[in-house]
User: What shape does this take?
Amino acid sequence: MSGAPTGQPGRRVAAIPAWGLVVAGSISLQLGAALAHQLFATLTPPGVAFVRLAVAAVVLSAVLRPSLRRPRRDLALAGAFGVVLGTMNLSFYEALERAPLGVVVTIELLGPMVVALASARRHIVVWAVLALVGTALLSQAALRHLSGITPAGLGFALGAATCWAGYILLGSRVSRRFDSGTGLALGLVAGAVVIAPVGILSAGPALARPALVAEGAVVAIASSVIPYSLEMEALRRISAGLFGLLMSVEPVVAGLVGLVVLGQRLDALDWVAMACVVVACAGAVRAQQAVAPLVP
Assistant: This one.
């Protein structure tokens, strides 16, 4: 079982409720995705994925100093988690180059939704269904563009969805088996190693340009170090099913960021859909607390 986070920053994170960690991670992830898309023309999607994971692995390993003196089954679990993590990032960026962000996120959310419905206990099934309805309503605009997605783009998006489900299920075990995020650090190292060949070959000489690598490092902090650390802490406290349901806030966060930052308008159905997701997440958290208090 994972120990409580140590130190002043750890205590501050421990004071944030699990749903707050998920929302904060989603905001950071959305900002990181926007930055990453701008790098595709020079670093390529595999290159960006590699830099993102490599920098995140270096940062967390330097801070947490994970030890390899652990049972083989623990290291194998962290390694499997890393393979899924690396493949998820690579698939997401490859899909993003071939389809609009809204379409990719819509398809990718199938992973968490399947986990939520399959793993949810009876007291949150209704809320999981409501979240699914809200997600479907939010996705309707994006799905109108589905005819424009290439077969490869659809395949990568479905691959990302499958990996996201694996990330939740394996991440739940890793967060409880390792202390203070060390399992995440080991997983990031494994993920970076797995995609290193394709990332380095694809990006080529661009990886030697300090400015591009610096931008990739910013993406790594926003898209990996912050959200993954927060999500692993949330997974330590709640079930995989509830976490999968809370992932439905991703399109809500994306819509609100678009409204506030980009001035993109939301119609009445969008607001109804977001209300469904918010009510579903709040209801699921309250139902879980009524059955068993969440791990502090």
User: Anything to note?
Assistant: Residues 210-237 form the longest helix (28 residues). The CA atoms of residues 33 and 86 lie 15 Å apart.
